[in-house]
Write a structure and sequence with these properties.
Elements lengths: L30 H13 L3 E6 L17 E5 L4 H17 L10 E7 H7 L1 H10 L3 E7 L40 H6 L5 E5 L4 H12 L4 E7 L3 H5 L5 H10 L5 E5 L2 E6 L8 H4 L15 H15 L4
Parallel strand pairs: 1-2, 1-3, 3-4, 4-6, 5-6
Antiparallel strand pairs: 5-7, 7-8
Helix pairs in contact: 1-6
Length: about 300
């Protein structure tokens, strides 16, 4: 059985340094922003980010940047090819003794769920197959948030988006199941995959500490509550992230040494409606008429998942 070593046990154990300065043009309460902040605290300053077009495009706009590390902006489908080029260039310089080890970069792709599960999936699959040495950070707000919150491959069943509103003919809103990016990556047997939540900073930091010591393609899927798209108050975004874990909708887990390990199994899972009801994108499931059949279908999917592990 794989034994997972914990680097941090308390909040005060987390690294005090910051990889990015406070303040950004991103929406207040963005869960993905808190996730990448915690990640960079663990990874340090020598990080080169290849950023796919999306919400995080606004984070670093020339000539201004909040990051201590480097930032490379790409099209939505191209952050992984960019990471390949950067990693190859660094490796070539090292092979000719023109780059000291302490000057090497950790190459990290930062992309939204639209790029990760849809537009950029093909080159990402090729990079995993080649064993590219990089970290992939997916901030998953479950829609194309930067252009108005349209349906993406990770939009969950029962949610309303700009392109899948709830109507009389389509009362559930989105009628498609969310793509399982964890399982898509897992099928190619990379060294490491993890799900993380901004509401679980110790868990997130420990996972990045483990991944930092590894080589090869490593994926982080960060649940990223989106106040504007999900329809929650910015101050409540981390509460919603907590409810996603407590209801079992978003499992915290890792794939390492060929095994899936759950970092937290909620013994007394809350009903899914506790997570759904505070969000405007699920409001149609509760008013003007409660849609018990659709809510039950969402609950059934969560229960079926956890039956394998409880």
């Amino acid at each position: 059985m794989t034994i997972i070593a914990e680097h941090h046990k308390k909040i005060k154990d987390l690294h005090p340094q910051e990889g990015m300065v406070p303040g950004s043009p991103l929406c207040a309460g963005c869960g993905g922003l808190e996730g990448i902040r915690l990640a960079l605290k663990e990874l340090g300053d020598n990080v080169l980010v290849c950023n796919a077009a999306g919400c995080f495009t606004l984070l670093s706009v020339y000539p201004f940047t909040p990051f201590k590390g480097s930032w490379l902006y790409t099209t939505m489908a191209a952050p992984v090819p960019a990471a390949q080029g950067v990693r190859d260039a660094l490796d070539i310089r090292q092979s000719h003794n023109r780059l000291a080890d302490e000057d090497d970069f950790q190459v990290m792709v930062v992309a939204g769920d639209g790029s990760s599960a849809d537009m950029g999936l093909s080159p990402t699959s090729a990079a995993i197959h080649r064993g590219l040495d990089f970290i992939y950070f997916c901030y998953d707000n479950e829609a194309y948030g930067n252009t108005g919150f349209q349906l993406s491959g990770t939009s969950p069943f029962g949610s309303a988006t700009q392109t899948t509103p709830a109507t009389d003919e389509h009362p559930a809103g989105s009628e498609l199941r969310k793509k399982d990016l964890f399982e898509i990556w897992k099928a190619q047997n990379p060294p490491y995959i993890a799900t993380v939540s901004p509401r679980e900073p110790i868990d997130l930091s420990n996972k990045f500490a483990r991944a930092k010591t590894m080589k090869g393609p490593r994926l982080f899927i960060c649940l990223s509550p989106c106040p504007t798209g999900w329809g929650v108050d910015p101050k409540d975004s981390l509460l919603v992230a907590k409810l996603a874990v407590d209801t079992g909708i978003f499992p915290l887990k890792e794939y390492v040494d060929g095994q899936v390990i759950h970092n937290r199994i909620p013994r007394k899972r809350l009903p899914v409606e506790k997570y759904l009801e505070p969000q405007r994108r699920f409001h149609h499931l509760f008013a003007p008429k409660r849609q018990d059949e659709i809510i039950a279908k969402i609950q059934e999917g969560v229960d079926r998942y956890w039956e394998r592990y409880e």
